């Protein structure tokens, strides 16, 4: 077998049926579970609700943070409100991938929802900032298993050709939550209490659990039914987990703290990077030696659809989150919009994402070929992000609306494709870990490149202020926030400060353009496949 064929792995027209002979170390599905009728409608509806809650939790907190810091008198903890959630979400995605492969999917999914609910309850009732951070970490742990769990349930419950359509709906749900989140958070914070941003998860989550308990029936695995507890623990790759989790913690903390809390040359940041590198090397050695019992089996990651879907997802998601992170700031700092209004001004991006996510799911279902859509997504996104780098202080409505629509069309088309392609190329028992790998790449790409873009933005803002408006202190501009510039900057300096602020934001978007362009490498790898996989 040639090296290319080895990387490609099998290229099925459809997912293998249950008669395919599996390696004895891989969990084998006992039966196919095709949900139909009312049962399918009920299950898929509550899966959408579960995905919606997780997606909403990422955005609803944005408008609540000022009130939370006011109540806890803990402005210095703001970074941890997001970091604690991101850390546990990113850390445990691959762990949940193994859990879904070797334990009953229904049980693991309900456990993830329970953890998310506990975290939400702790956040809502938190008496101190520390308690709130702990609640965010617990919620992130649950969230790490919910989205990929919904994907796994669909993969086990729906025939392969229809999966892209359902996954497209999940993508639309993410877009809808991005629209609703800031508005709902602002409404709760202004009219009731910021605590309801988290309490709202409790009744909806309870309804999801009850409906799934009665309506969801999924195949189990031979391993889950016949293996001893000791064997199942070995399959979970405890050594891999013990090296992978601290490696992710060290890397993400270094990226979160570098250039903000500490300088990049600070000994703490250097030590975190070095320790992360050492742990990653140890983790890779463990994965190679453990083969099928590894957290990331080399057999799976060497398959072309998984390898190139992962490359595409890291780059594409990193670019998308870089745009999304700074676009509301541009509206607030440059156009003088409030936090809520800046969310409304982002609607062209989010609505086009929702529409094209749904349309692309249907298109892949109809054609059976996701590969061309990878190219369309990357090209549209590059053009849209490139046009956004032309933003100036005087940029008008037609431009910032039209460019958002173009970018949203590409992102909505592309953000779901790696999961669709990965699931289509895998045998049913491998779908959980394959899904986990791709969703991990999405979160990890966002975490890495948003941190890089923060460094680009901060450095450009500092140098621009010093060169253009030396009378204004750069640290004051950064600390005051996007909406309060006019409260500390003299009116005569405001036009120059806004120009520098605009240039700093655009410099972060250049990174997004480069990442979208590089994601074409992933698209190219997918296009080398010779047959439809759906």
Chart the SSEs and their pairings.
Layout: H1 3-8, H2 37-59, H3 65-72, H4 78-102, H5 105-125, H6 129-157, H7 163-191, H8 196-199, H9 201-215, H10 222-226, H11 229-235, H12 238-257, H13 267-290, H14 298-301, H15 304-335, H16 339-345, H17 347-367, H18 371-388, H19 397-414, H20 417-425, H21 431-468, H22 474-480, H23 485-488, H24 494-518, H25 520-527
Helix pairs in contact: 2-6, 2-7, 2-9, 4-6, 4-12, 4-21, 5-6, 5-9, 6-21, 7-16, 7-17, 12-13, 15-16, 15-20, 15-21, 15-24, 15-25, 17-19, 18-19, 18-24, 18-25, 20-21, 21-24
Folded structure, characterized:
- There is one protein chain.
- This protein has 534 residues and is mainly alpha-helical.
- It has three domains: 27-236, MFS general substrate transporter like domains (Growth Hormone, Chain: A); 237-281; 302-534, MFS general substrate transporter like domains (Growth Hormone, Chain: A, Up-down Bundle).
- Helices cover 76% and strands 0% of the residues.
- It contains 25 helices and no strands.
- Helix 5 (105-125) runs antiparallel to helix 6 and helix 18 packs antiparallel against helix 25.
- Residues 1-31 have low confidence and may be disordered.
- The chain crosses the membrane at residues 40-66, 78-100, 107-127, 133-156, 168-188, 200-218, 239-257, 269-286, 306-327, 339-361, 373-394, 400-421, 433-457, 508-528.
TL;DR of this structure?
With 534 residues, this protein is mainly α.
């Amino acid at each position: 077998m040639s090296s290319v064929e080895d990387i490609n792995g099998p290229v099925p027209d459809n997912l293998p049926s249950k008669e395919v002979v599996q390696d004895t170390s891989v969990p084998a599905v006992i039966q196919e579970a095709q949900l139909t009728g009312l049962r399918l409608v009920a299950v898929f509806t509550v899966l959408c609700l579960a995905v919606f809650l997780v997606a909403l939790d990422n955005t609803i907190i944005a408008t609540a943070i000022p009130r939370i810091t006011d109540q806890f008198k803990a402005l210095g903890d703001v970074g941890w409100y997001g970091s604690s959630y991101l850390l546990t979400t990113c850390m445990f995605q691959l762990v949940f991938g193994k859990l879904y492969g070797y334990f009953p999917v229904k049980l693991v999914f309900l456990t993830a929802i329970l953890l998310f609910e506990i975290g939400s309850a702790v956040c809502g009732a938190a008496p101190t900032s520390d308690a709130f951070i702990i609640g965010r970490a617990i919620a992130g742990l649950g969230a790490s298993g919910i989205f990929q769990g919904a994907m796994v349930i669909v993969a086990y419950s729906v025939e392969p050709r229809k999966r892209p359509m359902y996954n497209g709906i999940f993508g639309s749900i993410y877009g809808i939550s991005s629209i609703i989140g800031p508005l709902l958070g602002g409404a709760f914070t202004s009219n009731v209490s910021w605590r309801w941003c988290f309490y709202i998860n409790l009744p909806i989550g309870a309804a999801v659990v009850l409906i799934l308990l009665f309506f969801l029936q999924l195949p189990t695995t031979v391993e889950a039914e016949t293996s001893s507890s000791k064997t199942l623990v070995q399959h979970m790759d405890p050594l891999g987990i013990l090296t992978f989790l601290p490696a992710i913690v060290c890397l993400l903390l270094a990226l979160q703290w570098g250039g903000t809390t500490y300088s990049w040359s600070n000994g703490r940041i250097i030590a975190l990077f070095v320790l992360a590198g050492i742990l990653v090397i140890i983790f890779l050695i463990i994965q190679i030696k453990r083969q099928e019992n590894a957290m990331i089996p080399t057999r799976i990651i060497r398959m072309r659809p998984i390898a190139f879907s992962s490359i595409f997802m890291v780059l594409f998601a990193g670019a998308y989150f870089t745009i999304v992170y700074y676009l509301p700031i541009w509206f607030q700092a440059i156009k003088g919009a409030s936090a809520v209004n800046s969310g409304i001004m982002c609607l062209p991006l989010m609505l086009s994402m929702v529409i094209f996510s749904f349309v692309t799911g249907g298109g892949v279902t109809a054609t059976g070929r996701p590969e061309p859509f990878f190219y369309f997504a990357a090209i549209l996104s590059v053009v849209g992000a490139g046009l956004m780098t032309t933003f100036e202080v005087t940029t008008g409505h037609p431009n910032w609306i039209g460019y958002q629509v173009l970018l949203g069309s590409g992102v909505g088309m592309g953000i779901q494709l790696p999961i669709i392609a990965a699931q289509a190329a895998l045998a049913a028992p491998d779908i959980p870990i394959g899904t986990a790998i791709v969703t991990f790449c999405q979160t990890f790409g966002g975490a890495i490149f948003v941190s890089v873009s923060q460094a680009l933005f901060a450095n450009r803002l500092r140098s621009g202020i010093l060169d253009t408006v030396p009378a204004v202190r750069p640290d004051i501009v950064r600390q005051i926030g996007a909406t309060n510039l006019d409260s500390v900057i003299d009116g005569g300096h405001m036009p120059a400060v806004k120009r520098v602020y605009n240039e700093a934001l655009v410099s972060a978007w250049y990174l997004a353009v480069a990442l979208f362009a590089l994601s074409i490498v992933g698209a190219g790898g997918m296009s080398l496949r010779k047959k439809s996989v759906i």
